[in-house]
Design goal:
Layout (H helix, E strand, L loop, with lengths): L15 E5 L4 H9 L4 E5 L21 E4 L8 H4 L1 H16 L5 E6 L22 H12 L4 E6 L2 E2 L6 H11 L2 E5 L3 E2 L2 E2 H13 L5 E4 L6 E2 H12 L4 E5 L29 H13 L1
Parallel strand pairs: 1-2, 1-3, 3-4, 4-5, 5-10, 6-9, 7-12
Antiparallel strand pairs: 8-11
Helix pairs in contact: 1-6, 3-4, 5-7, 7-8
The structure holds NADP nicotinamide-adenine-dinucleotide phosphate.
Length: about 280
């Protein structure tokens, strides 16, 4: 019997890539970025990651797993931390159990936000929320054959995100109240997906990577930029985190940067906003 070479290119076949959470906003962007590969895109209906995958996919036949499935309801995780952990911790362990190189995604919310300069990979995490704690445990569950990509404030043309919420609210009212004392890096999923492609294709070392848009702003700044770029007439009333009480605490400052010399650099968040809006208009 002739054995297939483990490197798909040398074996003369396309790379086989499994994407979890494929109907989420990052899942969508990764499907586009990896369209040149042989992609198995699994929505939640096709694989609920709280359960092992079983024998649906021949395990030896996967070259890469892009694990985006996650419990992303930050407030909901406070009242059901076990439910969040089943997805974010056990789900990541199940993705790692497929034994292919893994890309898994984590969050700036693993930090407590007390720093005043960007968080880098060597900074100690200290999540303030149940969601942040499950994501941190999920990082450990990914194992050693994984790129653990911490990213921040994702938005894209599909799914639930701040950009789409602002556009919906602006269609209904003249003014929106937005938190002006939390600072982060709004990151366009299309730019993140391209950076993931670089990490994988150039076989950068496995481990922790901070990958977020250049620049930083508050949610209120981001809302104003959205209305400026779209020409939508809507005022932004800046409020404090205390005025906008939510079940889960959020870090006041969660700007992340990479201290790795070979980290992929993303465009500025405002460029990401323009690219996303252009995609939404197509
Ligand atoms: N969104 C952000 O601002 C942000 C910031 C930093 C890091 N991240 C991380 O980036 C990754 C991608 O986030 P995203 O914004 O693309 O999230 P998303 O749009 O909420 O997508 C997550 C996907 O996972 C699915 N899912 C939930 N539970 C599942 C389960 N048990 N089995 C299989 N699929 C399940 C969801 O399906 P349903 O819709 O049916 O529930 C959804 O399609 C996540 O790891 C997230 O923690 C996100």
């Amino acid at each position: 019997m002739e054995l297939e070479h483990p490197d798909p290119v040398r074996a003369g076949r396309r790379r086989r890539v499994l994407i979890t959470g494929a109907d989420g906003q990052l899942g969508h962007a990764l499907r586009q970025a990896f369209a040149g590969d042989d992609v198995l895109a699994f929505s939640r209906a096709e694989w609920d990651v709280t359960q092992p995958l079983g024998d649906i996919v021949p395990r030896d036949g996967l070259d890469l797993v892009l694990h985006t499935a996650a419990w992303t309801d930050v407030d909901g995780a406070e009242s059901d931390p076990q439910g969040a952990a089943a997805v974010n911790v056990a789900g990541t362990a199940h993705a790692a159990a497929l034994k292919a190189p893994l890309v898994t995604f984590s969050t700036d919310y693993v930090f407590d936000g007390r720093k005043h300069s960007p968080y880098v990979e060597s900074d100690g995490p200290n999540p303030a929320s149940a969601y942040g704690r499950t994501k941190l445990h999920g990082e450990a569950a990914a194992g050693t054959n994984a790129w653990v990509v911490r990213t921040s404030w994702l938005f894209g043309p599909t799914g639930h995100n701040f950009l789409r919420t602002m556009l919906r609210l602006a269609a209904e009212r003249d003014e929106v109240s937005v938190v002006g004392d939390q600072r982060g890096c709004p990151t366009f999923v299309g730019h993140l997906a391209e950076a993931v492609h670089v990490l994988v294709d150039e076989d950068r070392p496995k481990g922790l990577w901070h990958v977020a848009a250049a620049g930083d702003c508050t949610w209120a700044d981001f809302a104003e930029a959205i209305f400026e770029e779209t020409g939508v007439e809507c005022r932004v009333r800046r409020i404090t985190t205390a005025e906008f009480a939510r079940p889960a605490p959020r870090p006041a400052y969660s700007v992340i940067r990479s201290e790795r010399a070979d980290a992929p650099l993303l465009p500025h968040w405002r460029e990401g906003l323009r690219a996303c809006l252009a995609e939404m208009c197509r």
